[in-house]
Amino acid sequence: MTRSQQLFTAAQEVLPGGVNSPVRACRAVGTYPRFLSRGQGGHVWDVDGKEYIDLIGSWGPLILGHCREEVEQAVMDAVKMGLSFGAPTAAEVEMARLVCEMTGVEMVRMVNSGTEAVMSALRLARGATGRSKIIKFAGCYHGHSDSMLVKAGSGALTGGAPDSAGVPAQTAGDTLTASYNDLPSVESLLRANPGQVAAVIVEPVAANMGVVPPQPGFLQGLRGLCDEYGCLLIFDEVITGFRLAPGGAQEYYGVRADLVTYGKIIGGGMPVGAYGGSRKLMELVAPLGPVYQAGTLSGNPVAMAAGLAQLRILKSAPEIYSELEQKGAMLQAGLQEALSGVPVQINRAGSLLTVFFTEQPVTGYDQARSSDLERFKQWYNGLLARGIYAAPSQFEALFLNAAHSDGDIRKIIRAAGEIF
Ligand code: HOZ
Known about the structure:
By secondary structure, the protein is an alpha/beta fold. It has 15 helices and 14 strands. It has helices spanning 3-14, 69-81, 90-103, 114-129, 154-158, 169-173, 183-192, 218-229, 248-253, 279-282, 301-316, 319-338, 365-369, 373-385, 406-419, and strands at residues 36-40, 43-46, 51-54, 107-111, 133-137, 175-178, 197-202, 232-236, 259-262, 273-277, 345-349, 352-356, 388-389, 398-399. The chain has a seven-stranded mixed beta sheet with strand order 4-10-9-8-7-5-6, with helices on both faces. It has a four-stranded mixed beta sheet with strand order 1-2-3-13. The longest helix has 20 residues, at 319-338. Residues 21, 23-24, 59, 141, 154-155, 208, 396 line the site of (4S)-4,5-diaminopentanoic acid (HOZ).
């Protein structure tokens, strides 16, 4: 038995499924989770000493790779000054300024996770419009708050439970579900619920049913529909924020949302989330306005220090984005060739990719679900055996980071060619 297997056995006694987040249990790929002990650059090591190319990067935030010196140093300096105050600090002001400058939002509120950011943005949208319904897209994942666990992606989809038990029917009833990349499905919901929809929330690149980029005109069309029907457009940029471009998907696709949610990438690996928008909307948040939201650990000084160090690097070295784009294109083209004997669709947006095992182009939820999950299992385990640590679910993304070398990418391509 490996050390990972021993730990997993012990974990199952005290943690549901042996994990603190379902996908990590690796149930969909028929293996046990590798318990990790350290990371460096684009690589991680498990507790048995095996090295892997890390294509998860903590599910996105480690865009510069593990243990980037400036981030590490900033955290160590902050730790020496105190772990938490529950009071304002200078770092929060600098962080808010930087987020506003890079993304174009006018005001931002720090929270502790993407789930919290979305929950708070939805409350704000409802408070601002006086309406209660929300439109989301099947297969998009916006964290695990009650109203968003309707036709959810990510772990909910992986586990075969896109609609969670424990969500009150009244809550679920206020969530309307449209089809991603299908504007008429949104318009018909808006028409059928006149004056009732507070917001349309979307992952501008769906990345929790696997990566599904928006079709040309889709995001622009959503913007137009929201304006026409008087509701707010919310971009959930927990995955795309600061990754596709310094200004996230808003910049990458040239579409502005009313509210934007961010997640872990703002913390550089520490637990952080944020939501932001125009001054007019954000001034509705307490203590200025009637929409209440609070948190002792919000703006935590250690998390701010880590995030600030990472964002400063991203801002001062924009070539990181073109390099990530090149690496993404190189991996996509290489995989396409290596997997030419297998029915695959390789979807990509910048440094985010998913290999779907299906004949049909994947532009939405139904096509994503048509992927051959047995084939995916073989793929995942084949990669793992060859030292490549990928997301253990068809319905997640692969994340490249700035520390991955061309050699790493060649190794992944070589491995892919050996699996089937
Ligand atoms: N399902 C999450 C990403 N979309 C991953 C959570 C985790 O296991 O960290």
